[in-house]
Amino acid sequence: xxxxxxxxxxxxxxxxxxxxxxxxxxxxxxSLLSTVLSRKMSSPASKDQAESQNFPFLLDDxxxxxxxxxxxxxxxxxxxxxxxxxxxxxxxxxxxxVARVISADKHDIKPxxxxxxxxxxxxxxxxxxxxxxxxxxxxxxxDDTHHDKERLETIFDIADDHKFTVVIxxxxxxxxxxxxxxKDKSHWKLSLEELKGMKAPFDTDVLPLYFGWFLTTSxxxxxxxxxxxxxxxxxxxxAFRKRAKPxxxxxxxxxxxxxxxxYFGQKPNILHCTTKYCNHGTAPGSKEYAQNxxxxxxxxxxxxxxxxxxxxxxxxxxxxxxxxxxxxxxWPADAEKEVVPTENxxxxxxxxxxxxxxxxxxxxxxxxxxxxxxxxxxxxxxxxEMGELCGGELRYFNNDMWVLFLPRKVxxxxxxxxxxxxxxxxxxxxxxxxxxxxxxxx
Length: 442
Ligand code: 2AM
Hints:
This protein is 37% helix and 21% strand.
């Protein structure tokens, strides 16, 4: 009754029961009471089930909406019998037609300490790719143990190729690491030794290349349109063309419009705002960041980010993101100091979305360029007024930095999770880094 008292307005409850009230109100209370009671009593394993369902993509409407309009691979991970298939079913029930579950069990793949590349796995990958390519399928749930490092790398590569964001989820059941209990829960009838042999990888987090907010497909479309209009109009602007040499244009004889869309031809696969670069666990502070309570709670949750300005320098094109208090909890304390160690810049002032990079420029440069602008603003520089552009106010700062202050903040939806694939620069140079080199995964 005590927990009910918290659910119902306390003035209506006495130690002996409900106070008499108007009939309508009493009926409402009775119905509320029965809903609460049935919720509390209907499921026999209610505690375990509630635990295993405690994920934002099941409970939080904003997140459910964001998943429905994104392309997400929910990678279920855990020992056989830990509750993955139950969770997969919950997700399917929640998302209906936009979701698909692909299960290793259904492909007759018996969990083994070392996942061998078998015909069954080849078939599973074909099914996975088929679903990645299916129109209207936005949430794919992959139900397998995912303890094997090489297997994970294969999946991350396939997801990246198909522009799907990966969210790694482990069931929260109490017995998920208890081999004695698991032995009787999995239909594969694995021995205690087999289960113990698979357990070690679950003691270590799979750390991404970077954590961040990944824009939903519809929000990314909005921002891509803004990027296109901004670069198109800026490149045509007389004042810009006058100042474009030699920073943006090296050809002395160039006349007319500057093609900034081709100039910033290197673009991220999925538009995102990086919070913490982890390099799969080797970057300083990445393990601590992953353990942070806000990071754990926020993982797999949707947020609304506010974009206040777009900017262009000879190196990069980016969008400035204004973080709110909740979002700042996910922002590393040293993110600004990493770039400008000598100053105390406001927390979150490096937050941005890379829209494009010039040839041979690395995407990390966008945050560095943004902090140059922030430093000038802190010194009181307002930039030279360049008139109105795309409805916003264009200003020119020293060193060929152009900032478009938007008339009102543009809100974009984004899911907080990780990017687990390989670093693009290592792919371009032909060096295929092992994405999970640092993880102690078997
Ligand atoms: P970005 O967020 O500015 O685009 C992979 O390279 C991603 O991690 C990119 O999104 C990139 O920057 C970010 N990144 C790369 N190296 C980084 C570093 N040393 N510190 C912070 N972010 C980095």
